[in-house]
Amino acid sequence: MQIICEGHPQIVDLSPGLQFVLHHPTVLDEPVLEGESDVDAAGAFYSSVFRDAGVFRMWYQTWPRGRDGSNTFTVACAESDDGLHWRRPGCNLVEAFGTRNNPLTDLPFHSPSVFADPDARPPARYRAFGYCDPRRITVGTAPALNRPGYFTAHSADGLHWEIDSAEPLWPWADVITSAYDPTYHRALVAMKRWRRSAGMDRRAFMTAEWSAGQATQGVTALVPDEYDDLQARGRGFNSADYYGLGLMPTEGPTIGFLWNFRHQLPLGVFGDIGRVDLSIVYQLERHGKWHHFPGRPDWLSAEDAPDWANCLYTAAYPIDVGDETWLYFCGTLDFHGWCGDGVKYEEWIKTSGERKGSARIGLIKWPKNRIMGYKSVHIERMRLVPRRDKSPQGNLILNAVTRPGGALRAELLDPQNQPIPGYTFSECEPIRGDHLEIPVRWKEHPSLPRFPADQPIMARLELTDAILYAFDFTLPGLV
Length: 479
What we know:
It contains two helices and 30 strands. The chain is mainly beta. The chain folds into two domains: about 1-20 and about 370-475, Jelly Rolls, CATH 2.60.120; about 25-365, 5 Propeller (Tachylectin-2, Chain A). The protein is globular and about 75 Å long. The chain starts with a strand and ends with a strand. The mean pLDDT is about 90.
């Protein structure tokens, strides 16, 4: 399915009454994982989750009991049968608090993101990206690292890891996320880099790609600006930058879940105190410009999250579970760098094990492919051009919802922009209700016709009190 977004290359015409809207997700009231052992009692951060042979596996960064505020780069692996109730099997790899019977892996990364690489040989089936500083950690069996930076590592089982090279792939530091893109058989990577922007040093984001051991150079993707400051002030803060970026590659646009860090006064050198909310960004084509949703509204504000989630940091990528898409996230009890007036943050973190950690893992979910959409109240129309497809059967499939009395219809147009007999609005079976994937049908035609590859055919959709979230429009015979 092609997720709706402004500027989508298959959408060639819109009537002016169509409104571009966000579909806001649901947040579970309770966390799915919180500190319960010595190794993660102070917090669980920066998760990556996917299904592995029918079992959910989660990699997350841990803060141990009694953490004193220093950086601790330890990564744990948890398992679940349903994605909601998690267990921490003993990995017997890293000794902590006098035992190896804990869920710690030997991956020495800050902000780890892990995925399964279907193109890799079995010894490198699992792929991880993260920040690593050789001055602060012990790498173990990995080669001595030459300098801090963003690295990648591989593993046969997701527990025993080997860093690929002593040299970092990219020289910057802190938060990095990655997601496997099955359409292009490569990893999409987003990483934080400090930039001077709109009069202050801010966290910005670079993107790159990785495939078969080769990484592209990082390119500028998202740089905060004065408009972000205005958004922050409208929410009671002073300025803003970007703390992270969850990634969702699709067959069409790439969707990003942007972590908006809104700074409160007094400002530190880098605006170190504040709240983190989520908004939607998207990229229409590979290597193209990243776009904010118009007006840059929050997709999910921490104000609307449970009270244990005052800052929101998404997992590296979402996963599809049945008819839903799930995105795990880290929620913190505190604002970033602040836990109350007169309270020393370091001491508060050190004793956070008494509160099941300062950070825990929660779950955001929404119906599959429903992130953005075009909404009509009155009768509105749009035209679509088909994707090129070698399959023998074309499709016009919609993800849409209508209100009572609303409907959605379609007709096919010939090169002269005239309705094709048999495929007109009047012959279309109206779509009503709530559908994640429903094919458009005409009374006398159960499928789309075949057309010469060079014949420019379009589909015209008519929306009445409806929202269209995604579509798949292909025609057979195109090469």
